[in-house]
Amino acid sequence: MQPLPADAGVYRIGELARRVGLSEHVLRAWERRYQVVQPTRSASGYRLYSQTDERRLRQMFRLVEQGVPPAEAARTVAADPSATAVEPAAVSRLVTASRRRLRGALVAMAEPRSQALLDDLLAAVPLEIAITRVVLPVLRDLGAGWQAGEVSVAQEHFATAIIRGRLAQLARGWGQQSGPRALLACPPEERHDLGPLLFGLLLARRGWSISFLGADTPIAAVDSAVTTQRPDAVVLSATDARRLDAVADEVRELASRVRVLLAGPAADQQIAERSGAELLAGDLLQCVDTLAAQAH
Known about the structure:
3-stranded antiparallel sheet, 10% strand, 3 domains, Multidrug-efflux Transporter Regulator, Chain: A, Domain 2, disordered N terminus, Methyltransferase, Methionine Synthase (B12-binding Domains), Chain A, domain 1, 14 helices, 56% helix, Rossmann fold, alpha/beta
């Protein structure tokens, strides 16, 4: 191995595995089989990994989750670490068919079929693809249908309940991870907590431990949970800006004691600054990647 550069930013294997969301076993296997990372050695003989290694691992991890075989993903990263492989045709076809079938079952309010389709989807593709490529597009489409008068309130509520209930089952044990802890909540009167649930599921896959308080949570209750849970970050999510405006002073006081981030459609830089919090901007996956990359 090459000697350690004096100015290298490096991680031990456990830290790198946690940051990327891999197990140490998989990281070692990828290093041994595919040479996707090139660690150096510390004076004490420990493997040390650079930020370049982290970037390469994240890219390979993303490709593998898209269905690319590990050997092919490693070759893609080695040839061009910034390149993105073309999605396998089988995955694309499955995603398209799943969106169509799931939407149809939910609009028909067919509970057994909806559950079966979700089970099949979760068994066929990684959770990240299931959520970002199927579940979220279906929910957005139903929301647009409701606004256009094509989908009833009952149908939309049915769909949300089915999806929320099925994915909530995947949250079991997400508070027992060994990585940093995120406390997720919605401010008072904000009842849309499906977004934070999906965020927590994907963040847990990055090695984070999750404390989930859900919808309509008083800031005093969040503060109390901070005392007992000792999270590394609190994420407040809202779809209505009024919910965040109403608690800006309380959030500012909370942010003086713990890192607070605002997320969701209602969050913007102005509200974040008024609340003394940080803005977690972007789509769901971007928000997950941003927070996961900032783990310390």
